[in-house]
Design a protein that fits this description.
The complex is a heterotrimer of chains A (627), B (166) and C (463). With 627 residues, chain A is mainly alpha-helical. Chain A is built from 27 helices and two strands. Chain B is an all-alpha fold. In chain B, helix 1 runs antiparallel to helix 2 and helix 2 runs antiparallel to helix 3. Chain C is globular and about 70 Å long. In chain C, 68% of the residues are buried. The chains are: A mainly alpha (627), B mainly alpha (166), C mainly alpha (463). Chains in contact: A-B, A-C, B-C. At the A-C interface, strand 1, helix 5, helix 6, helix 25 and helix 26 of A face helix 6, helix 8, helix 9, helix 11 and helix 16 of C.
Chain lengths: 627, 166, 463
């Protein structure tokens, strides 16, 4: 197996190379088959890996030595343990389905081959991220996925706004990456190694300053905040919806945005040493989860609702991490990958059928025209809402129960509140889109059609996974499926969180949230379909709703606080430059006949300014003699 | 005695240097600069660097300054054609240079005592000794300096040459 | 030394060959010379060359692995630049031989700066490097901005030469030696006069700071870079910078190492200022060359970190790796830039609009070099920054925080080019004129970057 291990990430890279170099000359079918085929093989190899890990434990495979400097040895190596093989399965499995779906979705796009090339490159980077055996490899993949995300958000660059969204995503991610990079530097300084196995094995015997561990954890978490779109670095994710919908499903729902969760789960031995850092993680997750859910309540763009929902769900995962329930968070990553990919792809199917329309106010009644899409969307909505026995039910409930056990009733209350908000906006989305009368134009009504099989088959598979995914890790007290299978699978990497709740408490917590969710689903059905309450137009909104609909003006606030000062600083320097330098340069360009005059001006003006500047600098440096 | 000579030469060199900067007429400037060079050459003699003193006068005062004078006269530059600098620039330049002077003096104050005094062999600066050093210890820099001069010559030719299509 | 002799001999050959009517073999001649020198350098570097040569040069040169490795970097840059010269010098006729000759002379100076053990050699090296450049900056004599650049460069260069020389004299006065090893032992033994030594170090710092364009001695760089011919700007941004930093590092890590507590404060200040000022100014540029000028200043800020970390093992490798990746990326960027800016006489960012459709290869190369300069991970530039930052992190964590923030800011302006090439709908009707030489250089450079990305450790093995 070891020999085939590098193939898992490198096959998508080969796919990228083929599609990127020759894609323009290949037929669309060939491009699609190559793009998804390499992923299928990667997926099968990952399954083989999974079997081997199950049989004989983690695999460590070093391809070659990246560099050795003094005591720092960094290898291009893979660490395939229970955690990473699980992520590999998600990335390649869900990735494969989304690739297949894209064959249908992007069929009429002239950049078809480019799209597949970028997607393959993304999968390669994502696999490096989860498979790397050291932090540098992780960072490599981390930045790689950021770059691919940038390329794919800006894929339809003909729209200028999209390009801006892409750049925003990139820059916001870079802010997070600053934290991650500094965290990596600090880890190297503290442990003298970047290798996960080394770091975690040295951890017990080292007497570390708790403050240092907290600082490392917080810096890593800043990276996670950027990538996983947590407050305050979340604003890029809704804007990232500018990219094609399969991209939103793959990158901005199922895989890349969960990299932050993976990072924290991977570094759980460190986090477990720092309760303070865990508190911060839980708190940020909590605030994000509620904040994003509130914004999601008043969005009318189908993809924006899903985007805010993703931010909110990621917040829930971070609550889980903050509570020390790393395995539960990873469980939610898994189920979320299924149902959120499903929801996004179904939304893509709607957008496809509606000829590019994304505003739910112009939809309605799609149930009849797009039956398959409707049913899978319904399943997705129910799964995310925690409808009993669907996947989201188990994973969400587990996080909530652990939150109750570790954080107490207040934490549980807030987390549960966020979860209920999710139920509200998701049901609203479902009802407004699929029920009632069709509200689009005549042309759209004419065009409306169910998507081809190449798109619906992945949807159905994801729907089945969304239904059954929860059975991977059912709670003990329900005596159903495979109790706590996933948690025990992660056991060697992630110590199990102790759940010291009486069964009766668990039952009552679960019943409480679930019945509330069911009431909300039923109640909203009445509000939106029977009474026909529709979201109003943007202008008609007043007061608080308007603030919510405008996403609490966070973008504007950021613009004022960060972008403007940098621009002003830059502008000031620019003026200094213009005044003293450009004035002369433009003067010089005026003509040969004025050479003499210009030369005098040149000697008169800026050289002296430069020299005075240099002398002033020299004086400053000399002053350091007297310090 | 040496101290008085040193002081006289130093004062002369500073005053002539200032006059060179402040005089309006470029020709006067050049002449003052030549005087400065003579004063500095005097300092070299005091330091037993006789060869250097002679070369200094021959090369700088003799060759380079005469070249300067020729150029000035050919271009017919005089006080009228000299560009007038604004007072603000003068003040700024004076402040900058003044503070540089201050910090430099401050930094060097109290450190005039040499760590290892050079032995005062009166013949150290004569051609014979200098030649020996140049062709033994410093033969490599001496040769490498050849590259520098060759490069400078080629550069000078290039500046003066017209680019013709052949 | 062999490389120095080969380059010097080639320069002479080229000068004479320039007198003949047929000039088509000037470029191959220069390329052969550089290639030969590079081959010899690599041969000596990899341990196959004759050992114990350094005593032949009366303790003036020391051909250590450090010197050889940096010579190799400079020679690689020179090879790539001369490879571009078929295009860059295409309008020159009569003076072609002189131009090549001067570039090679300048390279000789750089080679002296890598291996000096004596301050005299450092000074000569700097002058041999600079004087041809003063002329080359103004080599397009009908171009006003070129003349302006040359004059400015010359005046300010002469000014700092004075300061540098004064600093060297003071250091000599304080330690009674020009030899960097003797200086170091004089400093550590306490056989020196502190005030004079420190003033001397500061003055040398100013002189070298000017050469590597560190703030506040950077004023010349934007004007000179913008005004000079593209090829010469590429040379200044790469070979001169590499030479400046290699000499800087050598002098401060060997000669002035015992005084590190003293000089690290001003150097740290310079590094912080350089990165910040240059990056913020670069954001506002609309002209590619001016942006590259500020970018090159900001890279000087990062490279100063290597000087600060000179007592950390691995810092010289970091400096070497960074110089190499930075140089290659910059030369590639210039290669791609020339093909669009020179025929259309427009160097603004808008000139690049839609370049990905006109010249996919060149656009991809330019994009990759921008990514590398910005330090985005899949490219070699990331490792450069990573090595530098880890080396300096233990001693200067806050400076590294600033550096990391600055490198994030720099993405903003590097991406402007990529956006113009790939993500802009407005197109222009500019023609892109390339030549086979440019394609060769670009492909070679790309391979080099790919190699450095895949096995970054290989460069460390050289030192």
């Amino acid at each position: 197996m070891d020999a085939f291990l590098p193939l898992i990430p490198f096959l998508p890279l080969i796919g990228f190379a083929i599609n990127g170099l020759f894609g323009a000359r290949l037929s669309k079918t060939a491009v699609g088959i190559i793009g998804s085929g390499v992923l299928l093989v990667s997926f099968l190899l990952s399954v083989a890996c999974f079997n081997q890990v199950a049989a004989s434990g983690a695999i460590q495979h070093t391809m070659y030595n990246f560099f050795t400097i003094d005591s720092m040895r960094v290898d291009f190596g893979f660490l395939v343990d229970q955690l990473s093989v699980w992520m590999m399965l998600i990335v390649t499995g869900v990735g494969f389905l989304i690739h297949v779906y894209s064959i249908g979705y992007m069929h009429d796009d002239e950049g078809f081959w480019k799209f597949f090339a970028y997607l393959n490159l993304f999968i390669f980077s994502m696999l490096l991220l989860v498979m790397g055996d050291n932090l540098l490899m992780l960072f490599f993949g981390w930045e790689g996925v950021g770059l691919c995300s940038y390329l794919l958000i800006g894929f339809w660059y003909t729209n200028k706004e999209y390009g801006k969204a892409a750049r925003k995503a990139f820059i916001m991610n870079r802010i997070g990456d600053l934290g991650l990079l500094l965290g990596i530097f600090l880890i190297f300084k503290t442990f003298g190694s970047l290798n996960f196995t080394d770091i975690f094995s040295r951890l017990p015997e080292m007497r570390l300053d708790p403050a240092a561990v907290t600082l490392i954890c917080l810096l890593l978490f800043v990276g996670a905040m950027g990538k996983s779109a947590q407050l305050p670095l979340y604003t890029w994710l809704p804007d990232a919806m500018a990219g094609p919908t399969p991209v939103s499903a793959l990158i901005h729902a199922a895989t890349m945005v969960t990299a932050g969760v993976y990072l924290v789960a991977r570094c759980n031995p460190l986090y477990s040493l720092s309760p303070d850092a865990l508190h911060v993680v839980a708190f940020v997750g909590m605030v994000t989860s509620i904040f994003a859910a509130i914004i999601g309540l008043r969005q009318n763009d189908i993809k924006k609702v899903l985007a805010y929902s993703t931010v909110s769900q990621l917040g829930l995962m971070f609550i889980g991490l903050g509570m020390g329930a790393y395995a539960s968070a990873m469980f939610h990553v898994t189920t979320h990958a299924f149902f959120k990919a499903l929801l996004f792809l179904a939304a893509g199917s709607i957008i496809h059928g509606m000829g590019g329309e994304q505003d739910i106010r112009n939809m309605g009644g799609l149930r009849k025209a797009m039956p398959v899409t409707f049913w899978v969307f319904l399943i997705g909505t129910f799964a995310i809402s925690g409808f009993p026995l669907l996947s989201g039910f188990f994973s969400k409930d587990e996080i909530l129960a652990l939150t109750y056990a570790h954080g107490g009733v207040w934490w549980w209350g807030f987390a549960g509140f966020g979860a209920l908000l999710t139920v509200i906006y998701m049901s609203r989305l479902l009802y407004v889109t699929f029920f009632g009368e069709f509200r689009g134009t005549e042309e759209q009504k004419h065009h409306l059609h169910e998507s081809p099989a190449v798109m619906t088959v992945p949807l159905v598979i994801l729907a089945i996974l969304s239904v059954l995914g929860g059975l991977l890790n059912t709670p003990h007290f329900m005596h159903l499926g495979t109790p706590q299978w996933l948690a025990s699978w992660f056991g060697p990497v992630i110590p199990a969180a102790d759940m010291h709740l009486p069964e009766s408490t668990e039952w009552s917590l679960m019943t409480f949230t679930t019945s509330l969710a069911l009431v909300i689903i039923a109640g909203l059905y009445f509000v939106y379909t029977r009474r026909g309450n529709l979201p109003v137009a943007d202008e008609a909104q007043t007061g608080l709703t308007r603030v919510v609909a405008n996403k609490f003006y966070v973008d504007e606030i950021y613009d004022f606080l960060f972008v403007k000062p940098v621009e002003i600083g830059s502008r000031l320097l620019h003026y200094a430059d213009t005044l003293f330098v450009d004035g002369i340069v433009t003067g010089v360009a005026k003509g040969v006949e004025r050479l003499g005059a210009q030369f005098r001006k040149l000697q008169n003006g800026n050289i002296e300014y430069y020299l005075i500047g240099m002398v002033a600098g020299a004086v400053l440096l000399l002053l350091s003699l007297f310090v | 005695m040496t101290l008085y000579i040193f002081l006289t030469l130093a004062i002369v060199s500073v005053i002539t240097a200032l006059l060179m900067v402040f005089s309006r007429n470029p020709v006067h400037s050049v002449l003052f600069l030549i005087l400065t060079f003579f004063a500095i050459a005097g300092q070299y003699v005091l330091l037993n660097a006789q060869f250097l003193a002679v070369v200094h006068i021959i090369v700088y005062a003799g060759a380079i300054m005469v070249l300067f004078l020729f150029v000035l006269m050919m271009l017919n530059l005089n006080s009228e054609t000299e560009p007038q600098k604004s007072t603000m620039w003068k003040i700024m330049a004076a402040i900058a240079a003044g503070s540089l002077l201050l910090t430099l003096t401050g930094a060097l104050r109290g450190s005039v005592q040499l760590a290892t005094p050079v032995q005062s062999n009166p013949r150290v600066g004569l051609v014979e000794n200098l030649g020996k050093v140049l062709f033994t210890d410093f033969v490599v820099p001496f040769e490498i300096a050849g590259i520098l001069f060759l490069a400078a010559m080629v550069g000078a030719v290039l500046v003066g040459k017209k680019d013709l299509k052949l | 030394m062999t490389a120095l002799l080969i380059i010097f001999a080639t320069a002479i050959f080229v000068l004479f060959a320039g007198l003949t009517k047929n000039r088509s073999w000037l470029q191959p001649l220069a390329l052969t010379g550089c290639g030969l020198a590079l081959g010899v350098t690599l041969f000596e570097l990899l341990g196959a060359g004759p050992g114990g040569w350094n005593h032949m040069y009366a303790d003036m040169f020391e051909f250590t692995d450090y010197a050889l490795a940096f010579s190799a970097v400079a020679l690689v840059s020179a090879l790539l630049i001369i490879g571009l010269s078929g295009y860059g010098f295409r309008s020159l006729h009569d003076t072609l031989g002189d131009n090549y000759g001067l570039i090679l002379f300048s390279l000789c100076g750089a080679l002296c700066m890598f291996s000096f053990t004596n301050l005299t050699m450092l000074f000569l090296g700097i002058e041999i490097l600079s004087i041809p450049l003063y002329v080359l900056a103004g080599s397009r004599r009908n171009d006003l901005s070129g003349n302006e650049a040359a004059l400015k460069y010359f005046l300010m260069g002469a000014f700092t030469t004075g300061i540098l020389l004064f600093g060297m004299a003071l250091v000599y006065g304080a330690t009674a030696s020009f030899d960097i090893h003797s200086i170091a032992s004089a400093i550590s033994d306490g056989r020196h006069s502190a005030g004079m030594l420190h003033t001397g170090i500061i003055l040398i710092l100013i002189g070298l700071g000017f050469k590597v364009s560190a703030v506040p001695f950077h004023f010349w760089a934007p004007d000179v870079y913008t005004g000079s011919p593209n090829l010469i700007t590429a040379f200044m941004a790469t070979v001169v910078k590499t030479a400046g930093f290699a000499a800087f590092y050598r002098l401060f890590s060997v000669g002035f190492a015992p005084a590190i507590d003293f000089w690290s404060i001003p150097v740290a200040g310079m590094a912080a200022l350089t990165m910040t000022v240059a990056n913020l100014t670069a954001i506002f540029q609309t002209d590619f060359k001016r942006m590259i000028a500020y970018s090159s200043i900001s890279h000087a800020g990062y490279l100063l970190l290597a000087i600060l970390a000179c007592d950390v093992p691995g810092s010289e490798g970091a400096l070497l790796f960074y110089s190499l990746t930075y140089s290659v990326a910059t030369i590639l960027a210039f290669g791609a830039y020339m093909t669009i800016a020179e025929p259309n006489d427009d160097g603004s960012f808008e000139a690049f609009n839609g370049m990905s459709k006109k010249q996919p290869l060149l656009a991809a190369v330019l994009a990759i070099s921008m990514l590398s300069l910005a330090g985005i991970p899949p490219t070699a530039g990331f490792f450069g920054k990573y090595f530098l930052f880890t080396a300096a992190f233990a001693k200067y964590p806050w400076l590294i925080v600033l550096a990391v923030i600055n490198s994030a800011v720099s993405i903003y302006y590097y991406f402007k080019i990529i956006i113009a090439m790939y993500f802009t709908r407005e197109e222009n009707d500019y023609a892109v004129v390339t030549s086979p030489g440019i394609r060769w250089v670009v492909v070679l450079g790309l391979l080099l970057i790919a190699f450095l990305t895949i096995v970054p450790g290989s460069v460390y093995a050289l030192i």
